[in-house]
Amino acid sequence: MKTVKHKTTTKEDNSKTITETEENKRVFLIESKGHQGPSATLLEKSKSTTVGRESHSATLGPESESHTEGFQAYSVSIGDYSLSTTKGYNSIACALGYRSKVKAHDGFIIIAEYENTYSVRKLKKIHTAKVGEKILDVTIEPDKTYWFDKKGVFRIYTDKEIVY
Q1: Is position 163 within any domain?
Q2: Total domain count for the chain?
Q3: Closest Cα partner for 72 from 112, 107, 22?
Q4: Is residue 162 in a domain?
Q5: Could you tell me if residue 109 is inside a domain?
Q6: How far apart are CA 131 and CA 139, in angstroms?
Q7: What is the pLDDT of residues 24-80, one digit of tens each?
Q8: Domain-located, residue 1
Q9: Which has the closest alpha carbon to 146: 161, 131, 162, 157?
Q10: The whole model's pTM is what?
């Protein structure tokens, strides 16, 4: 199996990046630096990173990562088992996929909770909180990663855990 390593980088204000590759269905790294420079990836195991004021990042594939750093920068991951992180005042990290993870330094987190009924995934509820507030009696701390584990318990994720 051939592996495609694709990298796209932008460094100017208002630069827009959307990258897609068909070969082996993998996108590895997309970076955007500069104010209002959004970035989006569409395939599995892809990574999108933005740095700058109002520089938004989105990933749509499973096992993808979306990272932002900057004032009012929004990070969104939609695929299952994905990660969304953000740093910056009034920023938002949003993870909507099944068993996805979310982390924020300052700002807000949004995470989806699913019901597991006989191998069928059903969206149960969307939870939101500002860093320092609570979701399901868990206080959201800065720079900590949160998720719903296999049992559906909302808690801090540790890097040593196996997600699948």
Answers
A1: no
A2: 1
A3: 107
A4: no
A5: yes
A6: 8
A7: 444 445 555 666 667 778 788 888 888 888 888 889 889 999 999 989 999 999 999
A8: no
A9: 157
A10: 0.79
